[in-house]
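Re: Re: ligand-bound prediction request (bumping)

Still looking for help on this. To restate: I need the protein modeled with adenosine-5'-diphosphate bound, output as structure tokens. Inputs repeated here so nobody has to scroll up.
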Amino acid sequence: MEKKAQLYEGKAKKVYATDDENLLIVSYKDDATAFNGQKRGTIEGKGVINNKMSNILMALLEENKIPTHFVKELSDRETLVKKVKIVPLEVIVRNVSAGSFSKKYGVEEGIVFDEPTIEFSYKNDELGDPLLNDYHALALKLVTKDELETIKKYAFRINEILKKVWSLCKITLVDFKLEFGKLSDGRIVLADEISPDTCRLWDSESGKKLDKDRFRRDLGGTEDAYCEVMARLMQNIKSAQEIKF
Ligand code: ADP
Ligand code: UDP
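Reply:
Sorry for the wait, this slipped through. Here it is.
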């Protein structure tokens, strides 16, 4: 597959065209940003880990009937994906209170919910990714009703699968952000990435944060935390592949 023009450079990845108009190459960087780009830095080796972890998890989701953009890992940092039109919603699923949820509602971090929650924000950096509900998403014509239902169904199903995978790794899946996209035939698939950049992952026993919050909150040991989650995933992925979800 030939890599052609760079189409986009984001905060964490670059996106390239290929000689197939339906396929793109994404290239994962070590750059890290937080607070809508106000905090910037580098997490050494992050791109390699996020690339591999996303691919392993998306392949597992595919096996469990969740359509994704994943096609083929090309190298340490590069992956071939199906080109989609990104649905401009950040879809956030939570199992435990943390981050903006705790801040907004004035509750401590670590409260385990009886049922997972879902929320959406409008993917728009200029506006600071404002929170919106289903009706707002429909009013703004960001999605159709059917698409929204599909996205919610997939998001909760993904949560069920990922919760089990991470629990095998002795990690609590606290919350995570997903992005979905539309293929040229209109089908909705999971796109973007699943990694410690986009998930909160806490050690199940100690509660130690093993995700991007180490960078956001200057806790130190960010690189080690990313390596630790990756190592635990590699140790447990075979068992995860055998689970009937
Ligand atoms: P950001 O744009 O938020 O800075 P990234 O640095 O991760 O994020 O850039 C990757 C961009 O590629 C994102 O805007 C994401 O929505 C988009 N993207 C992810 N997967 C696909 C795909 N399969 N097809 C088209 N665009 C995609
Ligand atoms: N998240 C993300 N990208 C964003 C915003 C959030 O990947 O632009 C992830 C974040 O890593 C966490 C979850 O979504 O796992 C929920 O984030 P939250 O709303 O608590 O916001 P934060 O406190 O991280 O700003």
